[in-house]
């Protein structure tokens, strides 16, 4: 129930249904109580509950109908009634009004409901009380319902009988659900208690209740009938059972009487035993003598003998026996109940075995056993109890309180013996099946009625809502139509308006713009929407526009009107727009209407200019109509001709014009009307003084059938021309300066005229004019024919000429001249003279020549350079390709020129070429790179230089270089590998070579030690072998350490030379002290190197210096530093030893080269070779200076870092 | 299992018959009561130490040695590998092992000592030196036997 209204309606309906159900059921109960109240065996509901239900029903109805006072009154009534019913419990049991008493739990619930109703009506927080009441009611209701199945809960049972419990409990549960919502129901807005709903609910519920009631009565009747049938059956079978017992005893007695005397004890025993065995209800048989003492007793158990004894002691016994003897018939005693709870009765039968003696036979019958036998096959919910004289003979049912007595019947068993049969139904246990049906019918009916009401209610509600929705829909449609119409009007306005209609956001973004913008600005609305207006706004108007928009948006300006901005049309032209704009707060947009006033503006300007021009122009303007009248004249016109404006306007212009020119004017007007403009019409006009003015007329016909005429007074011009001619001398001067002059050849006279400049160019005095043939002689012979031909052609045909030729001046100077000439025709159309210009173009010719030579030289350079070279323009078309390029690209110049680079070499697209070229072109930065162009299978080194014209590309093939590089790398790898192998070989070889040597030595040792068989010479030979093997071992070891110089190399670091030296001296301490060597050490700087190897170097040098000294002379050794620079230093090691011949200095550093005899000086001669090798590795140089007998000096140049 | 502290068992792993002969002679001269067993390579050595019957003819039974003389360069499995396996085997970890090899290489020496060799001796070229070495081994054997009285249990 998400919808709170639906929620309320649901509970309203529930309360209403409950109210009707209460009323209906209450009425049924009351009716039942009034019509059949107290009828024995009738299952009836208590009328008190019915009364309360009716009052509650009206109370609920009052709540639903919002009758505040009625509901209040009824609630109080319920409270009072509940109190009254509660007090009934104190009345005595038998009081008639106690029939109204009802279950105290039910009273509690009723009170809670009444209180809930009261609080719901009067207190806005009543729902809390309702909630609490609901919880209590619900719990009790559930417990009560469950008590039907769980006897332990019997205390919670709300009804006095099962039937009422199964009705009341669900009602209470249903009622408890509604309690929390009573407040809501009372304060609801919905109209629910309308007649239709009440009728539907009432009909449904009343029918349900009636069905329930009748079903209930019917079933109640059925149960009663069953009880009746049971009683009949029991009566019949009980009576017959007694009759049988009595007859049995009588028959026994009669048999014994026939024997005339008691049978012998053995027979009697047998007889009685057989009886006891065959008839289980018989417990004991005895024979009493006339003194009423048992003479012969047989019993089923000892307790029966005791019982018999007690029975005989009873005071009424003698009377009863007497009575039996007297009646001479079997007689049943009153029932007796010993302590074991069973009921016994005795049967007495007088016997007279011997006449006169009144003996008696007593049989004890177990009555309980008899009834057990009778009822054991009854399998019904009904139970049976048999009583007599306040004794319970048989009780199948249990305690009386838990039973509902259906029927009691008194049965006469024996003449003075009456038993009562009670048929009852157990209370609190499960009722018979048929009793479930009525409540089920009742509640399903109630639920169905409730659903019926609910659906009726919702149906009505939906009808109402759909009506209101329909109304709403109609209104909405109306508004939508209105809006659509408005919108379409708007759109039409937008569509057809010549003005730009637009809305602009606060930020200046076009939100919407009318299609007129396409006409005015060239942009479609789609292009502009979403764009900022800066896109089209001219730069110079931005600040002002921004200011205006800000003012409008802030509200400082209500409205902008006639605000002008210049916008840029898509084609770049400027359009002036006059805006009317208003800020709409509601739409958060600036609505603008812009009118294109460019044309107006132009017209305005034009008009203004025209007016100004018209009035101020030095030219004469007039406007005349087609009827030859003046329409307007300007000041100049007035001033020039002297007539006043008033005189002229309204008069015909023909009066002013010279008569000879009238025809020309008329012809001009007619040509104007035919659509031709008139220009350069020369006519004469008279001023007011009668002076003649030459006027040059231009005229056009305007659309308004006015002729606009511009007239220029050329009178003055003619005069000025005259004056100009006079100033020709000045012009000639100017000609000379520019080295350009004019010439004329009069063909009739053959006379030439040269301007001064022409003369100057020819180095002849001014004024000297040669004839044509002489003039031609100035030209160099190779040019002479050309100019002669040109002049002749011009004379013959009038074709003008323009030649650049070389002349030799009068002074013998060579000059380049430009001769231009054209023919002048006389009035008869024949050529009368030639005239033209003549210019000294030597300087420019020389410049041109230089440029040409330069270009040639450049081309030669480009052609001759070994680099390939080409240029492309900005469209990537080849503009120049040199020869080398043709070779490298395998394409000829003709193929390439004018074609696009990318078309000719598509393989380069997307490659590094593409990337680099485009980068260079785009950024203007030159690029250099190497690249492989696959289609040509070539490595290229490329430099590209961008310029205004495009790209100049120099490149060369570096395939050879690349190949050489690869070759070198391969060789290096090979070298490295072979080096490595060589080292491995040296190591392995030296190692494995030692092995056999060792064996030779060891076994020769063994041989020598067994010297018995060898003579001295043999031993000598063996020792020589051993010695040789030892030397070889040394050699191998030396070789190994030599090879280790490279294999065991450590990285170079800065080493403390002095520290290394100290270590070495420490190692050599023995030999130093042995030889008494003196060693002086100066300051030594640090050295860049491998400390281990440096140590080897020093060790070798020092040990050599110590070793090689003249016998008897102690070694003197000095170590000093020389030539210290930033990067290098020299270690000088000198001794005063035996020295050597410098010629062998080179050999010193080769492996196994010894400069001294083996005898006297040990060593294999590898030491210095190792030194050399190590120093080579350190990039250090070593020089040895020595003289035999004078000592040796080693100079080693080390790196310092 | 050690037979007797006075009769030390020395196992020599060396593939070179010359060296075997020289060592045998040297022991015969200086330490005659030592029982010598020879194996020719690492595989045989490990087989011997782990109880398999030795294939070498020079020894008839295979008592666990008091000392192992180990050559490094041997076929099949070299001395370095054998040393690693011996030191990795809990039963053999305590076995006194002295490397006796031709290799005077510093790297080999450093490696063997790091891997737990008790000593590293370069094979001498002179027989007299070999005699000296054998004498010192004999001393070593006796002292190590005294220092490790529990080596029976460890074996």
TrEMBL record, chain A:
It catalyses: ATP + protein L-histidine = ADP + protein N-phospho-L-histidine. Its EC number is 2.7.13.3. Pfam families: HATPase_c (PF02518), HisKA (PF00512), PAS_3 (PF08447), PAS_4 (PF08448), PAS_9 (PF13426). Residues 988-1201 form the Histidine kinase domain. GO terms for cellular component: plasma membrane. Keywords: Kinase, Membrane, Phosphoprotein, Transferase, Transmembrane, Transmembrane helix. Residues 801-853 form the PAC domain. This is histidine kinase.
Automatic annotation (TrEMBL), chain B:
GO terms for biological process: phosphorelay signal transduction system. InterPro entries: CheY-like_superfamily (IPR011006), Sig_transdc_resp-reg_receiver (IPR001789), TCS_response_regulator (IPR052893). Keywords: Phosphoprotein. It comes from the Bacteria. The modification 4-aspartylphosphate is found at residue 71. The keyword Phosphoprotein applies. The keyword Phosphoprotein applies. Residues 9-138 form the Response regulatory domain. This is Two-component system response regulator.
């Amino acid at each position: 129930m998400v919808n709170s209204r639906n929620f309320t309606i649901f509970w309203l309906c529930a309360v209403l249904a409950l109210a009707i159900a209460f009323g209906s059921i209450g009425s049924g109960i009351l009716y039942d109580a009034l019509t059949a109240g107290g009828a024995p065996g009738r299952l009836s509901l208590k009328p008190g509950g019915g009364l309360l239900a009716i009052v509650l029903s009206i109370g609920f109805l009052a709540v639903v109908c919002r009758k505040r006072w009625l509901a209040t009154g009824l609630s109080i009534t319920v409270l009072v009634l509940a109190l009254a019913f509660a007090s009934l419990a104190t009345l005595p049991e038998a009081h008639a009004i106690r029939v109204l008493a009802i279950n105290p739990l039910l009273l509690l619930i009723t009170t809670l409901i009444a209180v809930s109703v009261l609080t719901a009506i009067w207190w806005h927080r009543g729902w809390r009380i309702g909630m609490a009441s609901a919880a209590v009611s619900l719990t009790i209701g559930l417990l009560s319902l469950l008590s039907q199945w769980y006897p332990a809960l019997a205390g919670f049972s709300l009804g006095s009988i099962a039937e009422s419990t199964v009705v009341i409990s669900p009602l209470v549960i249903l009622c408890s659900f509604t309690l929390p919502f009573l407040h809501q129901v009372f304060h609801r807005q919905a109209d629910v208690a309308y007649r239709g709903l009440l009728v539907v609910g009432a009909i449904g519920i009343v029918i349900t209740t009636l069905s329930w009631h009748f079903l209930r009565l019917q079933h109640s009747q059925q149960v009663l009938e069953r009880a009746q049938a049971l009683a009949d059956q029991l009566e019949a079978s009980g009576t017959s059972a007694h009759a049988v017992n009595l007859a049995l005893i009588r028959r026994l007695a009669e048999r014994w009487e026939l024997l005339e005397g008691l049978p012998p004890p053995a027979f009697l025993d047998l007889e009685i035993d057989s009886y006891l065995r065959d008839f289980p209800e018989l417990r004991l048989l005895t024979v009493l003598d006339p003194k009423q003492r048992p003479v012969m007793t047989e019993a089923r158990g000892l307790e029966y003998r005791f019982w018999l004894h007690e029975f005989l002691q009873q005071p009424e016994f003698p009377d009863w026996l007497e009575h039996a003897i007297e009646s001479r018939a079997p007689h049943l005693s009153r029932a007796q109940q010993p302590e074991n709870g069973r009921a016994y009765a005795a049967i007495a039968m007088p016997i007279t075995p011997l006449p006169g003696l009144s003996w008696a036979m007593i049989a004890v019958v177990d009555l309980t056993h008899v009834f057990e036998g009778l009822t054991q096959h009854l399998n019904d919910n009904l139970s049976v109890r048999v009583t007599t004289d306040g004794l319970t003979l048989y009780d199948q049912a249990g305690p009386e309180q838990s039973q509902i007595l259906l029927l009691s019947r008194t049965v006469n068993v024996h003449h003075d013996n009456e038993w009562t049969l009670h048929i009852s139904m157990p209370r609190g246990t499960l009722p018979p099946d048929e009793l479930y049906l009525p409540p089920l019918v009742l509640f399903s009916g109630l639920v169905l009625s409730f659903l019926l009401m609910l659906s009726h209610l919702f149906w009505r509600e939906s009808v109402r809502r759909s009506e209101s929705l329909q109304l709403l829909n109609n209104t909405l449609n109306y508004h939508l139509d209105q809006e659509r119409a408005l919108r379409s009007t708007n759109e039409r306005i937008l569509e057809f308006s010549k003005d730009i209609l637009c809305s602009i956001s606060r930020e200046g973004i076009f939100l919407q713009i009318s299609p007129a913008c396409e006409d005015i600005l060239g942009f479609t609305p789609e292009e502009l929407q979403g764009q900022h207006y800066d896109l089209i706004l001219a730069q110079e108007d931005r600040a002002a526009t921004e200011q205006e928009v800000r003012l409008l948006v802030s509200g400082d300006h209500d409205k902008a009107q006639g605000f002008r901005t210049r916008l840029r049309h898509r084609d770049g032209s400027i359009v002036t727009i006059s805006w009317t704009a208003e800020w709409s707060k509601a739409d958060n947009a600036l609505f603008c209407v812009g009118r294109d006033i460019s044309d107006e503006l132009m017209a305005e300007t034009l008009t203004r200019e025209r007016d100004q021009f018209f009035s101020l122009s030095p030219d004469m303007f007039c406007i005349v109509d087609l009827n030859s009248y003046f329409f307007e004249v300007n000041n100049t016109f007035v001033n020039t001709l002297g007539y006043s404006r008033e005189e002229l306007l309204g008069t015909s212009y023909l009066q002013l014009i010279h008569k000879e020119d009238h025809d020309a004017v008329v012809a001009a007007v007619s040509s104007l009307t035919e659509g031709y403009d008139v220009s350069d019409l020369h006519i004469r006009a008279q001023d007011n003084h009668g002076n003649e003015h030459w006027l040059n007329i231009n005229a056009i016909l305007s659309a308004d059938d006015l002729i606009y005429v511009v007239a220029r007074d050329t009178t003055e011009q003619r005069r000025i021309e005259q004056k100009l001619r006079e100033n020709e001398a000045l012009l000639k001067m100017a000609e000379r300066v520019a080295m350009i002059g004019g010439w004329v050849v009069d063909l009739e006279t053959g006379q030439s005229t040269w301007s001064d400049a022409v003369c100057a160019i020819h180095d002849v005095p001014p004024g000297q004019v040669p004839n044509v043939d002489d003039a031609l002689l100035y030209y160099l012979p190779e040019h002479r024919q050309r100019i002669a031909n040109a002049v002749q052609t011009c004379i013959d045909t009038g074709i003008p000429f323009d030649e650049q030729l070389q002349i030799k001046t009068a002074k013998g100077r060579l000059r380049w001249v430009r001769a231009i000439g054209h023919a002048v025709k006389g009035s008869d159309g024949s050529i009368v003279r030639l005239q033209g210009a003549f210019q000294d173009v030597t300087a420019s010719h020389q410049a041109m020549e230089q440029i040409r030579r330069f270009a040639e030289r450049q081309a030669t350079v480009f052609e001759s350079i070994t680099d390939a070279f080409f240029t492309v323009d900005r469209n990537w078309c080849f503009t120049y390709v040199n020869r080398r390029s043709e070779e490298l690209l395998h394409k000829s110049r003709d193929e390439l020129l004018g074609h696009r680079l990318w078309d000719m070499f598509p393989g380069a697209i997307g490659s590094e070429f593409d990337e680099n070229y485009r980068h260079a072109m785009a950024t203007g930065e030159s690029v250099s790179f190497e690249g492989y162009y696959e289609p040509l299978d070539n490595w290229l080194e490329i430099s590209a230089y961008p310029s205004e014209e495009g790209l100049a590309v120099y490149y060369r093939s570096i395939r050879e270089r690349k190949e050489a590089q690869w070759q070198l790398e391969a060789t290096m790898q090979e070298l490295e590998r072979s080096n490595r192998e060589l080292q491995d070989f040296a190591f392995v070889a030296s190692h494995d070579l030692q092995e056999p040597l060792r064996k030779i030595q060891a076994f020769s040792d063994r041989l020598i030690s067994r010297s018995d068989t060898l003579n001295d010479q043999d031993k000598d030979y063996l020792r020589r072998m051993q010695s040789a093997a030892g030397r070889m071992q040394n050699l191998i070891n030396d070789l190994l350490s030599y090879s280790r110089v490279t294999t065991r190399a450590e990285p170079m670091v800065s080493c403390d030379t002095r520290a290394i030296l100290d270590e070495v001296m420490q190692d050599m301490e023995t030999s130093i002290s042995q030889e008494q060597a003196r060693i002086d050490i100066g300051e030594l700087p640090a050295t860049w190197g491998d400390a281990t190897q440096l140590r080897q170097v020093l060790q070798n040098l020092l040990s050599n210096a110590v070793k090689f000294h003249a016998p008897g002379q102690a070694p003197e050794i000095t170590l000093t530093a020389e030539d210290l620079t930033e990067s290098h230093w020299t270690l000088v090691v000198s001794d005063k030893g035996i020295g050597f011949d410098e010629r062998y200095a080179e050999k010193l550093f080769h492996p196994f080269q010894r400069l001294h005899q083996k005898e006297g000086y040990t060593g294999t001669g590898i030491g210095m070779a190792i030194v050399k090798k190590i120093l080579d590795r350190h990039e250090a140089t070593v020089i040895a200076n020595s003289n035999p007998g004078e000592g040796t000096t080693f100079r080693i140049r080390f790196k310092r870092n | 299992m050690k037979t007797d502290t006075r009769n030390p068992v020395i196992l020599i792993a060396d593939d070179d018959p010359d060296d075997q002969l020289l060592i045998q002679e040297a022991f015969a001269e200086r330490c005659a009561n030592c029982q010598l067993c020879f194996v020719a390579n690492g595989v045989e050595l490990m087989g011997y130490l782990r109880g398999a019957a030795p294939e070498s003819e020079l020894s008839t039974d295979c008592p666990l040695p008091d000392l192992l003389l180990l050559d490094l360069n041997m076929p099949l499995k070299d001395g370095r590998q054998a040393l690693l396996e011996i030191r990795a085997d809990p039963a053999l970890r305590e076995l006194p092992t002295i490397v006796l090899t031709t290799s005077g290489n510093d790297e080999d020496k450093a490696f063997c000592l790091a891997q737990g060799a008790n000593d590293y001796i370069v094979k001498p070229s002179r027989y007299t030196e070999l005699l000296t070495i054998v004498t010192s081994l004999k001393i070593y054997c006796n002292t190590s036997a005294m220092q490790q009285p529990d080596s029976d249990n460890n074996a």
